[in-house]
Amino acid sequence: MSELTARLREGLPADAVLTDPDVTASYARDMADFCPAGTPAAVVLPRSVEEVQHVMRTATALRVPVVPQGARTGLSGAANAADGCVVLSLLRMDRILAINPADRTAVVEPGVVNAVLTRAVNEHGLHYPPDPSSWEQCTIGGNIGTAAGGLCCVKYGVTAEYVLGLDVVLADGRLMSTGRSTAKGVAGYDMTRLFVGSEGSLGVVVRAVLALRPRPPRQLALAAEFPSAAAAGDAVCRVMESGHVPSLMELMDRTTLRAVNDLTKMGLPESTEALLLVAFDTHDPGADLAAVGELCEAAGASQVVPAETEAESELLLQARRSVHYALEALPGTTMIDDVCVPRSRLADMLEGTAAVSEKYGLTIGVCAHAGDGNTHPTVCFDPDDEDETRRAHEAFDAIMALGLELGGTITGEHGVGVLKKEWLARELGPVGLEMQRGIKQLLDPLGLLNPGKLF
Amino acid sequence: MSELTARLREGLPADAVLTDPDVTASYARDMADFCPAGTPAAVVLPRSVEEVQHVMRTATALRVPVVPQGARTGLSGAANAADGCVVLSLLRMDRILAINPADRTAVVEPGVVNAVLTRAVNEHGLHYPPDPSSWEQCTIGGNIGTAAGGLCCVKYGVTAEYVLGLDVVLADGRLMSTGRSTAKGVAGYDMTRLFVGSEGSLGVVVRAVLALRPRPPRQLALAAEFPSAAAAGDAVCRVMESGHVPSLMELMDRTTLRAVNDLTKMGLPESTEALLLVAFDTHDPGADLAAVGELCEAAGASQVVPAETEAESELLLQARRSVHYALEALPGTTMIDDVCVPRSRLADMLEGTAAVSEKYGLTIGVCAHAGDGNTHPTVCFDPDDEDETRRAHEAFDAIMALGLELGGTITGEHGVGVLKKEWLARELGPVGLEMQRGIKQLLDPLGLLNPGKLF
Questions:
Q1: Which positions fall inside the FAD-binding PCMH-type domain (chains A, B) (predicted)?
Q2: A370 to chain B: which residues are within 8 Å by CB?
């Protein structure tokens, strides 16, 4: 037994330390298949804060890197193992510790699955909005690590908006509490938000106080077909300029629609260039949808089809949620971009992405959280074809360059991981990068937490 | 002319550097009269980013402390001068640089007055929610410095929720951009939120990208009278547990009501122990108010009076906004607490505050952003009476101790300044304090920015 394994077992039950290479290899990577991943020395599955502290103290003593993991549904390689690291899986810390309807808060461990929390708070008439497409698998800890978004963001914002306070185990094993359990609080610097989206590079979240909302009415959706992605982008702007507050505003292009039909046999319209889904969870969603339908037609929609029932609306949302899996199921492999631009530049972003597709001779399926200006151009390529792979990487980069040019960001919700490190430096600029590295140095002076990510 | 003045004038117009002691003395303090304040060596009033950079470069070269200031309406002494410092007033950087209805964003300089921005965006059908009571005077830069709240927070959150990106001049004069201009973005650590609420101790905000909302319908309010503050706190919990989303939920106790009547002759009921104001800006506020009225009665309200008109509602809000001035106008002087507790502990907080008042034999007027659990107990005392002053400080501290005991924070929205330094350390604990000091050291290694505040 290695010294590392022996020391880990001093503070963890035997079944919480895995070292069989066949088993540990299965923890090596998230869903970004093409990102490099190392070979872990061990996988630990703690059940308590004290056990996490023991892992970090051991790692610090032996100078071993630690990679915190949730459900590994990430799309940037942020949870990928480093060679010789300890993979710190939080999956067994999956207790919901409290739900308080008067305070509209929940207290959870990091391994709670998003959908499990959502259903649990629903029973109290409450709602936890953040809903990444992987919500049936992904964990709250992982959501916090990436500041995950989802379909609800256009009205309800991202995970960051729902994290009030955290308990974090630092690199050296000390426990720090950040933030608060209250609706408001400004005592000192906002350390909570520093950890949200830090991709496991600053500390290990072991407990979170989350804000909840009252459960909204069920939403009703429409689908509008457009002759061009730019026309759909124009419709998005018209809707927002008119003061509407949709609960969902999603776009799928023709490539995406075909892929979804192939996977799900849903019979979405394939002759249209762009399908826009808009939903409302207001007191009279039918009236809101009627007004939005008119705005879509004014922007050039060839057809506007409101869902008749909640079930029909839910079917449209399922189509959108299946996009990632549908594009993954296409022949070859995919690289998914995550560029977010100001909403007013969405049409430019969509047209520019089509130009990139043409220039590099590659299929790029686009879906977008259109209401947020957050596009997911998915570059499809044959990984066995060297030239196509090179072109795919160039196209992937060209899309990020375009996003920055349009005043946007290289990542709206998926994070940087190992996939966009070079681009993070470009977006932050030298002063910003220096300060972010300073933060990392402050909180993880030995560089043990999730090394090789972000910077 | 001192070397400091000479160097400052090399990069600033003559009218932007004030050194007349009678003039500079008027910039020495904010509205927390009883907090210590030093004597500034100079006051500078830059109009551009470059001028701010010149000030910080000069200060760094000469090792002179700099105290950034907005309208000095703060309540914790956070903008108070240090001896020999340069007061850096951002009041002349007051341009609204852009308002974009499709993106629902505004780009502003720090000296823009809150109410000026509110009215400007209203003309585009948009709304900037944060509304501190001082909104007609206070600046966006000051609001960012304190992460200011207001009456709207129960539905719309605090300033922090509306800051998407910042341009910040660092202590050494370098310019750093943080965040984004987009609805979403997770590229690297959230440095934006680190500056929000940092009370001018980490950098000088010179430009902000703010999120806006569509303008909500006008709100309609009710006033409910309760036989005890605890009963009002119970009503607050019942309303929130029932899934309502009020746009305002404010409480005034009898001392406060009398003080407001003395100042404004408004004729608020003085025989009641606690008056709860609740408002809705929903599609049918009358129906929501009727439901809430019933909940108030179930919680023991002796009388529930819904406003008949928007004008009547606005009058109730004006009463609440005048509280600070009304309590200030009482004989003697006041110290205003800002404790925020979980909403479910509001009744305990209010009863505990009454016990503190009795124990120390002092009048303590309480108003509260009740929906947020954010109470403002205001300790009234005669500053010329040594014993009363000592008791006032003890009562002020006892209230913060009670807040922490109930799982709350020592400051919901006013910040730490010089007033609550010792208490910040208590709330954060040693590990939290060490990390916050590390952040300060990273961004301001010479300790020149607003020294003596927070820690």
A1: 36-215
A2: none
